[in-house]
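Why does residue order matter? Because the sequence determines the fold. Keep that principle in mind as you read this record.
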Amino acid sequence: MLPAMPTRGRSPLNRSLSRGIAILRAFRPGTSLLGNGEIAERTGLPRASISRLTQTLTDAGYLEYSPAQRAYRLGAPVLTLAHAMRSGSPVLRVATPPMTALARRMRINVGLAVRDGDEMVYLESVRFNAKGAQRTVVSGQRVPIELTALGRAWLAVAPETERKALFAQWKTKRGSRWRQLEKEIADAAASIAERGCCVATWQPQVIAVAAPLVSTRHPVHVLNVSVTTEEPVAPVVRALAPPLLALKTQLLDVLSDVEV
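Structure:
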């Protein structure tokens, strides 16, 4: 089930709007079609509400209905919203050129992400293989907060209330594994406080180092650099951390003068 939509201050979000957004959020990469039953399972919304809202979203063009499959897929206007977000983001406008330059110079992956619910969402991901060829940019990819360097860097600077709510959720979700994960998250927070970055190796042979971008003018973003390697973690981190922290400093200096 998707995480509950947030509220701002004491005023709850419009209920129908919130439910409509929850339906759109139910579609993820690898899922091309969803029926009303699958949407209900993913969102926790009543079937009667889903039928009404999917019809409204279809009329507006944000969903397309497949009579043969009796299911829905996302419509083209969703893509235009994503493009508008990317082209209108002052942080992406500032961050993408130096991210690309670092990825090209060191032949590494460089990413920028923000938090959405219990996941981090890549806004930009510049990827190079060992031979120097640039790979497809992956924007919109989601990764779990509790397992990744990106997520743990965000947790290190997150508001206490949000962190506690997520911890309660993961304690139930992760079961016996939560105690070890909680320790790793605490170690990452200590590393952020001491060194400005943290490391995680949640995927085989992938070493990632991340650092939060905390600015009074913008939401918290997180930078990361990563490589696929069989080398020991320590020397890889020693090589990756300085350029990551230099990029962080560069971006924070520029973002301090960029309006939201």
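The longest helix spans residues 233-255.
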